[in-house]
Design brief:
CATH topology: Dihydrofolate Reductase, subunit A
Number of helices: 4
Structural class: alpha/beta
Shape: globular
Helix content: 10-25%
CATH superfamily: Dihydrofolate Reductase, subunit A
Amino acid sequence: MKAIFHADKEWGIGKKNDLMFSLPKDMKFFRETTKGKVVVMGLNTLRSFPGGKPLKNRVNIVLSPETVDEDVITAHNLDELFEEVKKYPQDDVFVIGGASVYRTLIPYCTEVLVTKVDAVGGADVFAPDLDKDENFTLIFESEPQEDNGYTIKFCTYRNKRVQ
């Protein structure tokens, strides 16, 4: 299992249940990386999508105590989630938010793909700061590039505790 998100300089990932930045290159990276794969999210993340509908061309799993709808697989707790994701190749499962789901599941992820945005977005939700987590090592960092007026870098962190 992997996680994927973009974060500002303070590891902020969202504001008012939405993304803080419009980043076409980052969105393209997200689409290409997760297309045809399995995405795991919380209910608020699902509700933040257009029409509250699941992402197309992916298996959508929602971690929620309440049953959602027929277009997604609902995992009511971590045991159900881990049982469900066993059905898929580990590298095909991506945690996509929100903040509480990241905090819960990042310790179980082999890698975390972070698009770092060189800005402060006024976030009200945050991801764990992997630069300060001794269990994670930065194994890849792209050259800085411009994306819709922001400087971004694509980074990959490996979890030393999960192989």
